[in-house]
Amino acid sequence: MTFVNEDFGTSKLADRFGVKGYPAVFVDDVLVACPRDFGYFREEIGKGRYAPWQNADNQARFKADLSHMIDLILAGKKDVVVRENASRSAALSEVATLPKFTLQDLAGKPLTTDQLAGRVVLVEFWATWCPPCRSTLDWLGELKRKYGDNLAILALAVESPEDKIRSVAAGLSPDLRVAITDAPTAGAFGNITSLPTLFLFDRTGKTARVVYGAPPDLHAQVAQVLDSLAN
Amino acid sequence: MTRGIQVDDLRSRRKSSLAVVIAAIMALALPAAGQDAASQIRAEAERLQQSLKNKPVSYPDLPDASTIIANGLKEAIQGESAGRLYFSLEKLCQMTDFLYGARAMTDKTEAVKTGLPAYEAEWEKVSSSVTAVNRQAREKNWTDSPVALRALSETAQGMTIPLLEGARGFAVSTEPKDGLFNLGQAEGQAEFAAFSTTLHLSRQGAPYPLRSLMPEIEALQEKTTDAFRPPRSIDLHPIFMSLNSALKQARELDAAKCYAGALFQYLYAVGFYGMLDAAPLDASQQATLKGALGAARQKFGGSQRDDSIAQFFLEKAESQVSHFDGSAPSADDWRVAKVLVDQVLPAYSALDKPLFGAQRASGKTIDITLVRWPYT
């Protein structure tokens, strides 16, 4: 067994798994614990599986979990480790339902969770300096045309100057609701680990899919989910 | 870098009449080259003091920053006056790091308010200057320099890139302004590394035989991992953090063949490990320790070899029990000094006999990777 330290900010493994904070623990290339597990790095103290860390039971739990993962991998059961952690990580890292928020869109109109009740909702976090975001924003207009009133689309800008947001928004489909995100709203959606990050919620507000970045099959992934939710 | 034995224990903050006596002795004992270096250190500390006076750092998250830095720089000058040049240099490094970090937050927060692109522009500027300074520092020929000076410089150089990358990580993961302090720290460490290459400080005695310490580092890592059990893993968590951080730095410096920096960090780690079991000292133990300090000073002072790293830890121990301000040492100060004398200095001497690494077991291996902040 080899212990490896990787620094926050340069860790390739963290990048690969979209982990933006620390600490995170990997067994080979399987993510077995992330900042949320330790209630650390912008997370609520005391909420993670091993939080607070300065507690004997939590340290024992982590030790037991880690030993279990190591035993499985040594026994050639990596697939089990991947499966166990995928379900746990997903449950821990993604919001379960459309969070409550109150924003103003670029036209100055209120934009709230309540207005979206009963509709399928797509929320994209984007930034003006993020090239993949620009192409996904154009594509969101196409989605709106295809699904019409069945689908509400919110394009929530982060970490970008307002004049540039307005300039980009001027070129988008007028049916998209564009707003500048405040920190509480971004925080309510959990860890935005990459841009764009795209959330899909069903008509009851339950999270149907979260897509980080702009993978090559983004359109296909989203279309598949939307077809099942919106039709 | 640098750090002390325990989070706050490291900071000897006071002036003592004993220090004045030691200063007089050291002033007589130091060679001309040493005096040059002393003047350089004082001048650099005074330059930073003046910079702070002209433009105090003020940031809501660091309300006491100016006071802490001013006090630290004063200590650096007091250390220099007392002839504790390496102690003084370490303090100067800590304060350069802190001043540049706080300065970046004070001066650049407004500039990065518009978002990440503005932060990236700042980051690029700092990154290119730090890279250039680092490159220059790496070219230094240390043949005639004390190994402790090289160790301080290598440690500072080693910290710049992780701080730079970590700074960007914070800016991206939280807010651009949150990536400013570490960005400034990276600049400060590079600045100190460069400054240390200009010091006119000559090696005394034969060169220290630098080598890889990986077997010793791994052995201490194993002992540390074994020791990490409740209740100590709970009660002494800050010491474990410092200990693991020192071991990590030692390993990285060793891997980069920066053996002086690795030696320095390894000995720090030995000190932190010793603090896990350090008991309070009674009056007679304190008297014994003072005697042991004197004996160690004699031993390393009369060495025919460059034992400047031992001298550095000795200066730290002396600073724990002889405060610049004449105040009495605390119970923790005594504990730290005892660990330095009873464990760190013997560990330094023990390195003369290399430890051979245990053979790795064959068979299937796996990697356990921890993604972490580099210095906690």
Describe this protein's structure.
The complex is a heterodimer of chains A (231) and B (376). Chain A has a five-stranded mixed beta sheet. In chain A, strands 2-3 form a two-stranded antiparallel ribbon. In chain A, strands 4-5 form a two-stranded antiparallel ribbon. With 231 residues, chain A is α/β, with parallel strands linked by helices. Chain A starts with a strand and ends with a helix. The longest helix of chain A is centred in the first third of the chain and has 19 residues, at 56-74. Chain A contains seven helices and ten strands. Chain B folds into two domains: 17-197, no CATH class; 214-350, no CATH class. Chain B contains 14 helices and one strand. The two termini of chain B are 12 Å apart. Mean pLDDT of chain B is 88; it is low at 1-35.
Please describe the topology of this protein:
The complex is a heterodimer of chains A (231) and B (376).
Chain A: E1 2-7, H1 12-16, E2 24-27, E3 30-33, H2 56-74, H3 78-93, E4 102-104, E5 110-112, E6 120-126, H4 131-147, E7 151-157, H5 162-170, E8 177-180, H6 183-188, E9 197-201, E10 207-212, H7 218-230
Parallel strand pairs in A: 6-7, 7-8
Antiparallel strand pairs in A: 2-3, 4-5, 6-9, 9-10
Chain B: H1 17-29, H2 32-54, H3 65-81, H4 85-108, H5 116-138, H6 147-173, H7 180-197, H8 214-227, H9 232-235, H10 237-255, H11 259-275, H12 283-301, H13 308-321, H14 331-350, E1 367-372
Beta percentage of chain B is: under 5%
Query: How confident overall, as mean pLDDT of chain A?
Result: 84
Topology-level CATH name of the largest domain in chain A? Glutaredoxin
- What Rg of chain B do the Cα atoms give? 21 Å
Number of domains of chain A: 2
Q: Strand order within the widest sheet of chain A?
A: 8-7-6-9-10
Mean pLDDT of chain B: 88
Structural class per helix/strand content of chain B? mainly alpha
